[in-house]
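User: quick one, fold this
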Amino acid sequence: MKFINTSIPDVIIIEPQVFGDERGFFSETFRQSLFNDRCGETTFVQENHSKSSQGILRGLHYQTENTQGKLVRVVDGCVFDVAVDMRKNSDTFGQWVGVELSSENKRQLWVPEGFAHGFYVMSKSAEFVYKCTNYYNPKAEVSLQWDEPSLDITWPLVNGVPPKLSDKDQNGLCFTEAPKF
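Assistant:
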């Protein structure tokens, strides 16, 4: 596996080595010892799988209690995945990283605790799988505005059409009002 740094040092792209031929392919997508060596000691306690249609934007989410680190990947389709640094004492506080994750490139993104996270579906549909370092706690969940002007996230909206959002995400908090770590 190749570990690729992003503009936010704690957010890391993981690119597995893929072995393929006319029968299909094989790749190792996770190895605990290698992950701990490159990303820090981590234990995953929950894994989730979602499917979304083109134009759906999920996020930007985080939990103020039971904070979650997430190792995310796409097993079918293509998304633009975003992590926003919500850690007040970080050199990259308020900055974001965006990465295209797809079933084609097989990349994963490590989003540690202290970040808001979201993704936008660019393909006809996408299946998104992610491991979490803590359990989902809906009472502590925060949704940050996906289009927060001070963050200026460059979402690759298909045909410039605004994304489809859940009620929770339509009512996301602005960055200045959102709780920080």
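User: anything notable?
Assistant: The chain has a mean pLDDT of 97.
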